[in-house]
Amino acid sequence: MDKSLYVAMTGARASLQAQATVSHNLANANTAGFKQVLANTSPFPITGEGWNSRVDTIFHDSGFNPRAGSQQVTGNALDVSMGAGNWLAVQGSDGKEAYSRNGSMQLTPNGQLVTSDGHPVLDVRGQPVAVPPFQAIEIGADGTLSIIPQGEGPQTLAEVAQLRVVSADNARLVRGLDGLMRNTTPTQPFAQASGTALHTGVLEGSNVDATGALVQMINLQRQYEMQVKVIKHGDENAQSANSLLRLNG
After folding, report:
1. Is there a single domain that holds both residue 174 and residue 90?
2. Do 142 and 159 reside in the same domain of the chain?
3. pTM score, two decimals?
4. Which terms are listed as keywords in the entry (predicted)?
C-alpha cells in the first residue's frame, strides 16, 4: 500500500514545484527581456530487493526558452534591445559578471548606468559604466555610449564608454537566484558581440505566453488534486486493512 502513497506523493510534490515555476513566469510576463523558465518531470524507477514495480516522479529544471520576445518601440535613448544570441553584461548581486536581456536602463543620481532592476551595467573592461553630466546621450549599434557635455555644441560629441554586450551560447548559460544568467564555464569568457549588437529606442518584451501559462497552471492544479485524492484513498485502504487484521487476530 505504501507504494501508491509514495508514488502519489512524489507526483504531488513535482506538481507543486511546476506550479511555482509557472507562477514565476506569470509574475514576469511584463518584465523586459525575461526568458520563460522551463520545467519538466521524469520517471525515477525505485530499485532494490524484490520486483521493481515502483516508479516515482522527480522534478528538474530544463533551462529557459531562448525565443525572442516582442519588440516594443519606446524612443528612449537608454532603452536597447539585444540582437539574437546577445546578452547585456551587468554586475550581479555577488559582484561578478552576469547577463541579462533587460535593456531598460536608467541613470542614478550619481551618474551610474543601471538596469531597471538596479544592476550596474558593465563596459568592455568589466567595470560599471559611469556617465558624466550631459545634455544629449546616444548608444550606437555596437554598444558605444556617447554624450554631448553640458553647455557644449554637437561637435563635442564624445565617446565615454562601450557597453559589454556578449555573444553567448545558450547551453552555457544558467539562471541564478537573482534572475540573471551566468556563464557555466567562467574560464572561457564570452566574446564581445560584433556587428549590430543592439538596437536603440527599442525594448524586448518577455517571451512568456500568459494565456498558455494560465492553462498550464489549471492543468497542474487538477493533477495535484488527483494525486492528493490517491494519497487519501491509499491511507483509507491501509486503515481498513489494519482493521481487518485486528479482527482476524
Report:
1. yes
2. yes
3. 0.80
4. Bacterial flagellum, Cell projection, Cilium, Flagellum
**H helix or E strand, kind and range, residue 11:** helix 2-27
Q: From the centroid of its chain, how far is CA 209?
A: 14
What range defines the domain where residue 88 resides? 71-204
- 133 plus 161 within the same structural domain: yes
**120 and 32, same structural domain?**
no
Residuewise pLDDT in 10s, the chain (249 residues): 466 777 788 888 888 888 899 999 999 999 999 999 988 777 777 777 766 667 777 777 778 999 999 999 999 999 999 999 999 999 998 999 999 999 999 999 999 999 999 999 999 999 999 999 999 999 999 999 999 998 888 888 999 999 999 999 999 999 998 889 999 999 999 999 998 999 999 999 999 999 999 998 899 889 888 888 888 877 677 677 667 766 665
Pairing of strands 37-45, 134-139: unpaired
The answer to whether the CB of 217 falls within 8 A of the CB of 22 is yes
- DSSP E strands in 4-156: the ranges are 37-45, 55-64, 71-73, 80-82, 86-91, 97-100, 105-107, 113-115, 134-139, 144-149
Domain count, the chain: 2
- Residues contacting residue 95 through CB under 8 Å, at least 6 positions apart: none
Q: What is the DSSP string of 151-183?
A: T--GGG-EEEEEB-EEE--GGGEEE-TTS-EEE
62 and 75 co-located in one domain: no
Does one domain contain both 77 and 196? yes
